[in-house]
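Help needed: design a sequence for this.
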């Protein structure tokens, strides 16, 4: 049943974290359905994504019209996660964080760093738990009870349940009553089992510009009052007074940005601007040259494998080669690193010429090549997630000293690796990478 929304805009921002029992339980579908529902109800809402994902935040932004920032206790850190939330608290009534993997899954251990539970604990934030209820009735009680007990031991609260893959209104009623009978958190909403699926590929969801968002309203049933009661007021809304040192004042940073280079943390763009940099963009798919006045170039990751033919014909490479040979700083990440090699060999074994600026090949494979958080000895943090592998690189100098993951390649002032770096995690280090020696 839907309830009317109060139109008051004078209430403080409320926050909740949407977590799942495990990966694949439908957490992202429920997140998008909630954002869609709240917008239809004219609720002012913003969103965040726990963990290093690039694709889910793009879908959040499509539905809310607001930038969705990454939060976590490993790459971003709890203090900077709080700061990101504080930047939003005066502008919206509700903030919803989409969790990562299962509630207690993280970098290591149970509910430790990088997990949704650890983030909720650090933010003093209630958890709304998504449960895949397909084929389940009374079993929802011991399942939810176990999650609640472990969450309570950690000092976090599960404030409500959303059931996914529900067979009928009668099925939903059974689940709701069982939770009430055993004094469990209430059922806030439920999703029918035949909800449209979002298309996916090897790195996750497709991008929003490739398909329309499904209309979830016919499949998603919400108890509005119970839903709002599951959020808690955000009280840590201190204004940050730290003085920002403008390390890149007067520097012009050129960023490759198009469908092949689209994995960009919004916080990285904010950080460049706060550091005083002037940002410009160019497209390698369109064959655009590096801007003549650029002081440094950033080649982000993305989907070069989907645009291999266009990239093989790109006219960007001459200007990029001249830029690199002149000793200007270049940072290439994951897909951006693929662009610098001689060839990209796609999943069918077809070899597509790339820039040829460095003598290695990048080969797509069906299995995951590497996944996980990364940290350089300098202290800068990031994340690695890719299906391609690089060869013929043994004669190069490494540029990173990570305990795990890609050590990268250093050539003049070019640094390239499979790691996506989170710039604000080490401002002095990142600024040094972007300034010519």
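Sure. Designed sequence:
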């Amino acid at each position: 049943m839907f309830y009317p929304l109060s139109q008051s805009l004078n209430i403080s921002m409320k926050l909740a974290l949407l977590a799942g029992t495990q990966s694949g339980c439908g957490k992202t579908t429920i997140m998008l359905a909630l954002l869609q529902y709240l917008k239809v109800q004219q609720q002012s809402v913003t969103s965040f994504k726990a963990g290093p994902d690039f694709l889910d935040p793009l879908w959040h932004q499509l539905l809310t019209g607001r930038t969705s920032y990454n939060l976590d206790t490993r790459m971003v850190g709890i203090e900077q996660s709080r700061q990101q939330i504080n930047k939003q608290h005066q502008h919206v009534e509700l903030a919803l964080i989409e969790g990562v993997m299962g509630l207690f899954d993280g970098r290591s251990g149970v509910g430790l760093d990088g997990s949704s539970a650890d983030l909720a604990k650090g933010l003093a934030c209630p958890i709304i738990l998504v449960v895949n209820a397909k084929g389940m009735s009374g079993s929802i009680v011991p399942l939810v009870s176990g999650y609640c007990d472990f969450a309570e031991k950690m000092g976090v609260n599960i404030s409500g349940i959303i059931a996914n893959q529900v067979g009928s209104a009668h099925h939903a009623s059974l689940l709701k009553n069982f939770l009430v009978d055993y004094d469990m958190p209430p059922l806030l909403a439920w999703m029918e089992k035949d909800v449209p699926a979002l298309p996916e590929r090897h790195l996750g969801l497709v991008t929003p510009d490739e398909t329309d968002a499904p209309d979830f309203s016919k499949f998603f049933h919400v108890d509005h009052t119970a839903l709002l009661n599951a959020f808690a007021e955000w009280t840590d809304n201190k204004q940050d007074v730290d003085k920002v040192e403008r390390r890149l004042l007067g520097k012009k940073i050129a960023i490759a940005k198009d469908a092949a280079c689209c994995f960009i943390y919004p916080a990285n763009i904010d950080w460049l601007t706060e550091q005083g940099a002037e940002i410009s963009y160019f497209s390698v798919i369109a064959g655009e040259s590096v801007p003549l006045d650029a002081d440094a170039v950033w080649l982000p990751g993305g989907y070069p494998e989907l645009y291999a033919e266009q990239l093989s014909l790109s006219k960007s490479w001459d200007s990029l080669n001249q830029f690199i040979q002149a000793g200007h700083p270049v940072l290439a990440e994951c897909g951006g690193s693929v662009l610098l090699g001689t060839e990209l060999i796609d999943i069918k074994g077809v070899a597509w010429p790339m820039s040829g600026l460095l003598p290695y090949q990048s080969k797509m494979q069906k299995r995951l090549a590497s996944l996980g958080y990364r940290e350089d000895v300098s202290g800068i943090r990031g994340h690695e997630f890719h299906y391609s592998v690089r060869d013929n690189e043994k004669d190069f100098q490494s540029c990173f000293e990570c305990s795990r993951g890609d050590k990268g390649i250093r050539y003049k002032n070019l640094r390239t690796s499979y790691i996506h770096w989170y710039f604000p995690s080490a401002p002095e280090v990142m600024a040094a990478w972007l300034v010519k020696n």
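The chain is about 25% helix and 25% strand.
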